[in-house]
Design goal:
alpha+beta, Aminopeptidase, ten-stranded mixed β-sheet, about 30% helix, about 25% strand, globular, disordered N terminus, binds zinc ion
């Protein structure tokens, strides 16, 4: 321990280093860089700061916080926050280029009691999806050729901040989507499709729908 301390004393590390938790490259010892990293790191791990809006469309209350629904025709202030969250979501899910949401999409934000956005869903209006099937010979997942047209909503993005995963946040978000996406009806669990889910997302989707996995593009 003391030897290590002695060796490190006064040493300066050069060149950028990569944070193991958030993946950001930054230069240690450069204040501006360290500050930028700290901000980004906290957002990604703990969620995006959110102080609340006067006219929020709250669609769910839970022990961990509330769920707010945003539509593309909402105020610029609201959409700016959605953009900030989605920028982070894209980075975290490794999405390089994608339309953030469509004209008929609805965005659901999970706001923690600590005033942070810790989860987000972008739900699309869709009318067809395809059943995911496992190819018996290769074991790979493929899709049915016949479209499934009873589908009611598509989940384009589903994200929960790193520190809040495995706490049921994603389930609560999807429950809010099912009861608020279409006016006056609650969409059944097996009528939700998912767009290009990650392996983790695929497992979650299967357990949530308790049935078939529907995929759309
Ligand atoms: Zn970091």
């Amino acid at each position: 321990m003391s030897k290590q301390l002695y060796l490190d004393f006064g040493q300066k590390s050069f060149g950028p280093m990569k944070c193991k938790s958030c993946g950001m490259l930054y230069t240690k010892g450069e204040l501006e860089d360290e500050e930028l990293h700290k901000k980004f790191h906290n957002k990604l791990i703990d969620g995006v700061q959110f102080s609340g809006w006067k006219n929020e469309r709250v669609v769910g209350w839970f022990d961990e916080g509330r769920v707010v629904m945003v539509t593309p025709s909402d105020s610029k202030q609201h959409l700016k926050k959605v953009d900030e969250v989605l920028g982070l979501v894209h980075y975290d899910l490794g999405i390089e280029q994608d339309v953030k949401y469509g004209d008929l999409s609805k965005i659901f934000l999970f706001i923690s009691s600590h005033k942070k956005v810790i989860g987000c869903v972008v739900a699309d209006h869709i009318d067809k999806a395809y059943r995911a099937m496992t190819d018996p010979s290769s074991g790979l997942t493929c899709c049915s050729t016949e479209p499934y047209t009873s589908v009611k909503v598509g989940i384009r993005k589903l994200w929960v901040s790193k520190s809040c995963r495995r706490k049921g946040i994603a389930t609560k978000l999807l429950d809010c989507v099912r009861s608020n996406f279409a006016f006056g009806t609650v969409i059944a669990r097996n009528l939700i499709a998912f767009s290009d889910p990650t392996v983790e997302g695929r497992e979650f989707a299967k357990s949530y729908t308790k049935d078939q996995l529907l995929i759309y593009q």
